[in-house]
Amino acid sequence: MPIRKTLLAVAAGLALLASQGSTYADDAATAAVASDANGKYADKEGNPTYKIQEDGTVDWYTYSGYRRFNSECHVCHGADGAGSSFAPALATSLKSINYADFMAIVAGGRKNLSGGNEKVMPAFGDNKNVYCYMDDLYVYLRARAVGDLPRGRPAKHENKPDAAKEQETSCMGG
């Protein structure tokens, strides 16, 4: 099965499960680290999350998400996810978009054609520079949305874990 179809199927399944609950609202308590698997952090629900140390050092995946966002997403969604006339402020939107919905939107795209304000997010399910790093993008934007990560490039970050190197090589085909 092509990667895009696999991503869309997984994202659709996750979105269906998530939509069966109540309204989603993210905050620092919900985003708190509950587990660590080789430098990749998860909250108590098992969703990817970020870790920022007291000295401002961010985990590798948050830093990678910053880099990927500024490579692929900032043109429409503005610097640091602050929004633009083309697309919404993801630093605000992710307060109410759960992980499954985020994955579905990024992989499959989205259209908002209401009120004469036509906005279309293209599908990135075929773009390796995006889909290989969707968790990284999510944790970066989640940290921005919750308010734990200020605007701008993180000054310090953890080293890239071996697991991240292996996943990147596997996904990018190198």
TrEMBL record:
Residues 155-168 have a biased composition (Basic and acidic residues). Residues 150-174 are annotated as: Disordered. The keyword Isomerase does not apply. It comes from the Bacteria. Pfam families: Cytochrome_CBB3. Residues 60-145 form the Cytochrome c domain. Residues 1-25 form the signal peptide. One of its GO terms (molecular function) is electron transfer activity. Keywords: Heme, Iron, Metal-binding, Signal. Gene3D superfamilies: Cytochrome c-like domain. This is C-type cytochrome, methanol metabolism-related.
